[in-house]
Structures are given as structure tokens and as C-alpha cells.
Amino acid sequence: MVLSTVDSMVTTGLALHEMLALCAQSILAEAETTSARQVILQAAETLRKNYQKELCLADLLAEAHMSKSYFLRLFRRYMGTTPYNYLVNFRITQAKELLVLTDHSVSEIAQEVGFGDASNFSTRFAKATGQSPLQYRKSALKPVEGAR
């Protein structure tokens, strides 16, 4: 009877130990996921704050302290796109505002939002919006029919 009680206690102890190990693994995995998400959100914030500058992946990687492939995989998971596409889309969003709110030339806006030249900007803008920058400005400023 004593031997079966000891066996039972050992078995129970091992089961408890296994359950605690699984809980610890789960907590660590969640903490790692939260930490990774924070790194990616910080990288996206860096892109938004510095969109007017020339940025490179190496700058983001230095800040993230992780390998390029892991960083790119996480960025795509949490942001739904690559860092480069995220930056280009943010620049185009800023350009849309400038096209509507200012009378700056397309070349000026291209420079203001971080594109190297107006041709590259116009090509990317048209690909993203289906309109050239000037067409976008014209259609955005056009009064709505029937409005006074």
C-alpha cells in the first residue's frame, strides 16, 4: 500500500510538472509574440515618422535586433505587407493630402514625400490609385454634381 501511494505521488508530481512546463512555455511564447509585435509596430512607426527621408532595411534591422528573414516574415504577418510597400503606400497617402490641400507641383510633392524624382512618384502613384497625380488632384477638387 505504501509503495502504491509513493508511485501515485510520483506520477501526480510528474503530471503536475509537465502541466507547469506547458504553462511556462505558453507564457514565454506569448511574451515572445508580444515582444515581436512591439518590434514590428515600432518599425512601422519609424517608417511613418521618417517617410520623407531615404530609408533602408538595414536601419530597421539595426533597431529590431533580429535577422532580416525573421524581421520580414514578422512584418508581413503583423502589417500585411513588406516594409518597402508599407513605406510607399504611406508616402502615397501623404501625397494625396498634399495634392488636395496645396498647390505644390507634382515634382515638389514627390520630393516632400520622399520619392527621388517625379517620374518614379507618378508611376507609383498611378499604379496605386489608378490615376496620375494631376488626375487625382483634378478629380478630388471637382465639385460634386448637384452640390451648392
Automatic annotation (TrEMBL):
Alphabetical list of Pfam families matching this protein: HTH_18 (PF12833)
Cited SUPFAM superfamilies: Homeodomain-like
Keywords: DNA-binding, Transcription, Transcription regulation
Top-level taxon: Bacteria
GO molecular function terms listed in the Swiss-Prot or TrEMBL record: DNA-binding transcription factor activity; sequence-specific DNA binding
First and last residue of the signal peptide: none
Domain HTH araC/xylS-type: 41-139
Name this polypeptide is given: AraC family transcriptional regulator
